[in-house]
Amino acid sequence: MNKLVQINIVCNGSTGRIMCDIAKKAEKEGFQSYIFYGRGKPSKELNCTRIGNNLSVYFHVFLTRFFNKHGHGSYFATKKLVRELKKITPDIIHLHNIHGYYINLKILFNYLKYEYKGKIIWTLHDCWSFTGHCTHFTIVECNKWQGKCYKCPQVTTYPKAFLIDTSKKEFQTKKKLFTGLNNLTIITPSKWLADLVKKSFLNEYKIEVINNGVDLNIFKPTCDERIYKKYNIPKNKKIILGVANIWGERKGLNDFIELSKIINNEYKIVLVGVNAVDKKKIPANIICVNRTDNAIELAKFYSAAYCYVNPTYEDNYPTTNIEAISCGTYVISYDTGGCKEQITNNKG
What is the model's pTM? Predict the structure, then answer.
């Protein structure tokens, strides 16, 4: 039986659902599937093993915040991961987001480069793999990653560091570790990201575009009036829906706040994924819903919405857009990343 190992920061959220969907499909095709993840809750349906623990994550965060050494912590956790990989002897190792305070890059990639003999697939969900620090650079219009990163304008953004700028050194470290693998294929969900990768030091690899997909058994028109009562949503309003794992300037939270000032009484904005901190700065006329990992409930929100608005300023190939479209809801989004690639028949 062929063996597939996948590694990602989480088992939930957009990247987590993508990974778990791949695992389920692989098992149906006869693969033995293994998932290794860094934080959050595991899938109850799949074979999931956490990498490290809360202590190793917190220490990795400490190294990142005070010394900007993201990817240099989790030493013992990654050593243990490599030992597990050697026991499993997978035919395919599929990497997803390997940033997120849970992987030691040098240990993992030395194993992949010098010991592992199977196939490696790396799905890039953002730009972190070929920059000196950041996951996205559209807002600050920075193209230093095409040559040599230095003096990063986003040191205080994820993966956040307080004082030290190590972007020049980290760029060189990533280039050294991430290049020279003979058995690596890079997958990007959008042509937009593929074009960026071709301009980076990762351009030595085969690059394929495979769009993100969603489970159409879940994300389909799903009418359930209980959603209105549960979250005190007026049934006589047209819902303008927004969904995000983490809200902020990059995801367009300020745009929703401004929109709430100009729409008439016919509409009601509902934002899903709002945490306690963001909720304090959101006007009372916007309905805020906590983050949910319940895909069935998300489908109910999409289906109840008059339209789904995604004012994201930096993105790759937003899964939420596809989820909304699959539920029969029109999508309004900025021309960001691969968003325009999701338009079919001139309709989003």
Answer: 0.92
